[in-house]
Amino acid sequence: MDEKIFLGEDEIPDKWYNIQADLKTPLDPPLNPATLEPAGPDDLKAIFPMELIKQEMSQERYIKVPDEVLDVYRLWRPTPLYRALKLEKALKTPAKIYYKWEGVSPPGSHKPNTAVAQAYYNKQAGIDRLATETGAGQWGSALAFSTSFFDLECTVYMVKISYEQKPYRKILMKEWGADCIASPSNITQAGRSILEKDPESTGSLGIAISEAVEDAATHDNTNYSLGSVLNYVVLHQTIMGLEAKKQFELIDEYPDALYGCVGGGSNFAGGVFPFVGDKITGKKPDLDVVACEPMACPTLTKGLYTYDFGDTARMTPLLKMYTLGHDFVPPPIHAGGLRYHGDSPLVCKLVKDGDIRAQAYYQNEVFEAASMFSKTEGFLLAPETAHCLKAVIDEALRCKESGEEKVLYFLNSGHGHFDLASYDAYHQGKLVDYEYPAELVKQSLANLPDTGGK
Ligand SMILES: *Cc1c(COP(=O)(O)O)cnc(C)c1O
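Above: inputs. Below: predicted complex with pyridoxal-5'-phosphate.
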């Protein structure tokens, strides 16, 4: 029995899959917050290159991956699909567990799949510098890595609490040539206004987005780069699900249930959308697709489905999504990542339509699952990823009771080598299971933009 299913370098898919082509009803458009009219290319071109804006709105089912992007992908792609035989054995489950392993990329996660593409399209458009935000540093390091191939400068606004508590990703970004700044900073208006109200602010992803967007909007040679949420990010990430589909074909299997963790939704969508396409077009109507999130930031399970800003400073277009409110900041005690207040509009719509379901988990049970994985399969997972591992283990144990030989697949989005402090806190019993912060959510939902019923 094969434990790893490989593809050759010449088998990397040369097109991305755009699920917009297969949606039963079209996505609600992003809105210009001032006019409440659909945001068009003109609303976006100050901060994004036209090729990406076209991809954002495209209804084409397949979009060609440029050769220059494939050339960089080939450094670590195709990534292996693993059968988790040792985990299955430890669980004594008849279920088969497969995972697509993205920890083999140089930055250690799925994120360079879009970062490389974004660096390429911006370089093509004549841009000199990219500005972005990063939470724990995975996205910032992926973009720093990617810009280094295309001779672009890179400025990363890093959420201050991570900048201080997790210095190693910051060093990695510098190693790849990026400028990494703690956010809120005093070099943007957005940062300064937060610091005036709260000089001790530990920052949030939303605040850092505002700083990066402002930087891009106020410099002609600079564009903004976002690591998740947007449709084109999800598009680029489908390279993973397309590879996985080929790998399952090689072994003559097709998953019954698919899992991924959701922060902004990009690894989940990238890993599962090529399969979800089969579900919504009726080829595989019974697929169970599960989006996994933390109880401390329960966007899909407790958020409202409505228009909201993508960022705290209300600079981005309004996106129709599940949201906890754009000024929601999860408690700092939460160690498992996945802290964004909203989610990819594509993922949200599929949850709303009932094609995907969502589950939320406490952080101790998540780390317990991760710990079982490192002791059986050997890889130390990112705490983010461990949210969906927890769901997979629960299902595998359910299969043990029922005797079902289900095929379970999860997108294993990255390694946790920079998260050892969180693992340490878990082992010392210092992690608190943060209950759903109902009061915080209520407060931030009170500040949703008024879209007059749209
Ligand atoms: C960034 C990250 C996530 C969460 O982001 P998504 O856009 O939801 O994928 C999950 N896992 C890893 C390893 C990450 O680096």
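The chain has 18 helices and 15 strands.
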